[in-house]
Design brief:
Shape: elongated
Number of domains: 1
Strand content: 5-15%
Largest sheet: 3 strands, mixed
Number of helices: 7
Helix content: 55-70%
Structural class: mainly alpha
Distance between the termini: 35 Å
């Protein structure tokens, strides 16, 4: 999934926006019956559990690594994170939603702790993101926010789909 283009954000604004995702995911998980948490709206779309596992792995293996490398190295090459491939290889539907939520929350909190105290010169440090090209750390934070928003929209659509399926009379 390629995030929408978005303007760079200040560190406080990015931290504020990014900090909301863990709560959003927990709230959805609490409202969605257990048997619905693994249900996919279609073969090619994620269940809630798959969304959370994807976000967890991207947070740790994609964003976390990228943030640290941009801060530590001069203009590092940042490999793509193929979320669809990782999802297939790791069979997310066999995982525990509470554990995935906890792991995502911890990874996001760790990344937010790092970026919450950054200065403007650190936010302007660059890396080369495959395949997007040069990106500043501030730009990476903006991409993270856009990616979260895309998942919020998809999860909201998933909730509506599952609600309509539950309310439909048997045919």
């Amino acid at each position: 999934m390629q995030p929408k283009r978005c303007p760079e954000l200040s560190a406080p604004e990015a931290v504020e926006r990014l900090s909301r995702m863990s709560g959003f995911l927990r709230d959805v998980a609490e409202r969605l019956p257990g048997d619905q948490q693994r249900r996919k709206p279609s073969r090619d779309e994620f269940s809630l559990l798959e969304h959370v596992c994807h976000l967890r792995d991207l947070e740790r293996e994609g964003y976390g690594v990228r943030i640290e490398r941009i801060l530590r190295e001069d203009r590092p090459l940042l490999p793509d994170f193929d979320g669809a491939k990782v999802a297939r290889e790791r069979n997310y539907l066999d995982e525990s939603l509470p554990h995935a939520l906890e792991s995502f929350g911890a990874a996001r909190a760790h990344n937010l702790e790092i970026v919450s105290n950054l200065m403007a010169d650190q936010l302007s440090r660059t890396g080369v993101l495959d395949p997007a090209g040069e990106i500043t750390l501030g730009g990476l934070l903006a991409r993270m926010c856009a990616h979260d928003e895309e998942h919020r929209e998809q999860i909201t659509g998933l909730q509506k789909h599952l609600s309509s399926v539950r309310q439909s009379p048997p045919g």
